[in-house]
Automatic annotation (TrEMBL):
Keyword check for Thylakoid: no
Protein name: Oxidoreductase (Flavoprotein)
Organism: Cupriavidus basilensis
Residues annotated as domain Beta-lactamase hydrolase-like protein phosphatase-like: 4-109
Keywords, sorted A to Z: FAD, Flavoprotein, Oxidoreductase, Quinone, Transit peptide
The keyword Transcription appears for this protein: no
Length: 555
């Protein structure tokens, strides 16, 4: 938390947490305005959590969500009205504070000279040059004003974005590359399953973004709001424009916490948790350790989702803990899966079913979580019946691990790059866009049919890097991606079923069966998951070292 005063009555801050509210009260603030839509990032508390803390502290809290880069004159006027009505002083916040400062600046356009707006914002630490352009341009986005231009622009600084940047730099060190991402922190998300099981501390899965961006690559710390492929341009928040020769799209996917009624109001309390958020994975472990019998529910939404095995990984590791502490016999475990099968690649199902039986798990296929009543600890599922009809099913719980529905980010779904389902439309082998030949996509946001895992991105990054360089005449040949994905299914503490497969569900083991037979639980595979994969991620994949990931070239 870092409040910065724009006026005596209004301060701006980056994202705050629920625990910051008491400090804001002590500093004298009487109202809070949130300008950040829920679900923008995996470490972001939902507004409801802030609002509950504010209510307890006696502060007013208002949610005025603004999509990055799309602050309108109408929203600025609404913010000005809020500032007039709310008790003062007021703290407004978003991801970095820029959105809130922008709304204030736009609201002052007819009250202060442009230079005065810019100077006051600069004194508070905000560079609002792009807003000045908008004010001078009668509020219109100056799309012809180019702020930067690079040979390769990468949208997204997650696993896929950093990996492809590093692969490009390893092949062509002088190539002009920029990464666009607003996040301050880069996460090793595959580690959150083990955080939720008490194996990893949460802090071990996080690094600063600045430390992960490859040397020589420019980092543009901003959010993308639109693609202009006909102009070879990306529009950023604040109406800045970046042009490219080649574009790589890999911003990850959007976790839709609001896709389940009542979820945001009860996350992190009332026994409701999710390993799909950095700050909630430790709560999973807290719940698992504390449970001494009762009913534990685990859910899986309709596909596609990030790491299709993660919902049941959380379940198996929880069951193993209860077995070890002697409470499994007193615990009823149910797995509510929107799909029709336990795992999409049949070769791995027999090993998983042995654990389902050993833990006494009640499998409920065709069930989609629709509503949660946290205080009453009730969950409502929509059940798909064999005749095609639907029925609603209610059940109680003592612990509920939720995996929310997931989609492509809004700015991708609304763009010319997306297919009918909202995912970036690419060739499944070359990962080049089917319409725009100078655009590529990889990672979770593409419409390829592989599993959405870090292992898939590790294989895709060298393919994209090679094909970009070939298109720029730095390399020859065409690289192809075979759909490789991997899912280390943690079936108990110390054993993993290592699922590896290609397009079409074809099994593709990386190791000889005498070392790791992926169709059976293995201690060697656990060692790989716990000890080898994290450093391989941080010091291999993110640094352009393509161990067992060299791309195959078409003849």
């Amino acid at each position: 938390m870092n409040p910065r005063a724009l006026t005596p009555d209004l301060s701006i801050s980056p994202q705050i947490s629920a625990t910051d509210v008491a400090s804001l009260k002590a500093l004298g603030y009487r109202a809070i305005v949130c300008h950040r839509p829920d679900g923008e990032a995996s470490d972001q508390p939902n507004f409801q959590e802030i609002a509950q803390a504010a209510k307890q502290a006696g502060l007013q809290a208002v949610h005025q969500p603004v999509v990055p880069g799309q602050a309108s004159a109408e929203q600025a006027a609404a913010f000005a009205a809020l500032c007039a009505e709310l008790p003062k002083p007021i703290l407004a916040y978003c991801r970095t504070g820029t959105r809130s400062a922008t709304l204030w600046a736009l609201s002052q356009a007819d009250k202060l000279p442009v230079a005065g707006i810019q100077e006051r914002a600069a004194q508070a630490g905000f560079d609002l040059k792009a807003v000045v352009q908008r004010i001078a341009n009668a509020g219109k986005t100056p799309v012809e004003v180019v702020d930067a231009e690079h040979a390769v622009v990468i949208v997204g600084g997650g696993a896929a974005g950093i990996a492809v940047a590093s692969s490009l730099r390893a092949r062509e060190p002088e190539l002009d590359i920029a990464i666009i991402d607003p996040a301050d922190v880069h996460y090793y998300q595959p580690g959150w399953t083990l955080v939720g099981a008490g194996v990893f501390p949460a802090a071990s899965t996080a690094r600063t973004m600045a430390s992960r961006v490859p040397a020589g690559v420019r980092w543009l710390k901003a959010a993308v709001v639109a693609f202009e492929p006909e102009r070879n341009a990306v529009v950023l928040e604040g109406c800045r424009v970046v042009r490219y020769q080649r574009l790589v799209v890999c911003p990850g996917l959007k976790i839709d916490w609001h896709g389940i009624d009542g979820l945001v109001e009860t996350l992190g309390r009332n026994g409701v948790t999710s390993n799909y958020r950095f700050d909630l994975a430790p709560y999973t472990w807290e719940l698992v350790r504390a449970l001494r019998g009762g009913k534990a529910l685990f859910t899986q939404p309709p596909m596609p989702i990030k790491c299709a095995g993660a919902p049941q990984k959380a379940m198996y590791l929880s069951c193993d803990t209860w077995r070890r502490n002697g409470t499994l016999k007193d615990t009823q475990i149910q797995f509510f899966n929107a799909g029709a099968v336990l795992f999409g690649v049949p070769d791995y199902v027999p090993a998983l079913m042995e654990y389902v039986k050993a833990y006494g798990i009640d499998l409920r296929f065709g069930h989609t979580l629709k509503r949660i009543d946290g205080p009453r600890r009730r969950a409502t599922f929509m059940r798909a019946m064999p005749d095609g009809s639907k029925e609603m099913v209610d059940t109680d719980f003592d612990m509920l691990h939720v995996v929310p529905p997931q989609t492509a980010p809004d700015f991708v779904r609304a763009s010319p790059l997306a297919d009918a389902a909202g995912w970036v439309d690419v060739d499944p082998a070359t990962l080049r866009h089917k319409t725009y030949a100078n655009i590529y996509a990889l990672g979770d946001v593409s419409n390829t049919t592989n599993a959405k895992t870090a292992a898939a991105a590790r294989k895709q990054a060298p393919v994209v890097a090679h094909n970009i360089l070939a298109s720029l005449s730095y390399a020859v040949g065409q690289a192809q991606y075979d759909g490789y994905g991997s899912c280390p299914l943690t079936v108990e503490r110390g054993k993993v079923v290592l699922a590896e497969f290609l397009y079409g569900g074809k099994v593709a083991p990386s190791f000889p069966a005498w070392l790791i037979d992926g169709t059976k639980p293995s201690r060697a595979a656990w060692f790989l998951k716990e000890r080898i994969l994290p450093p391989l991620y941080w010091d291999g994949m993110l640094k352009g070292r393509e161990w067992m990931a060299q791309p195959a070239l078409l003849d």
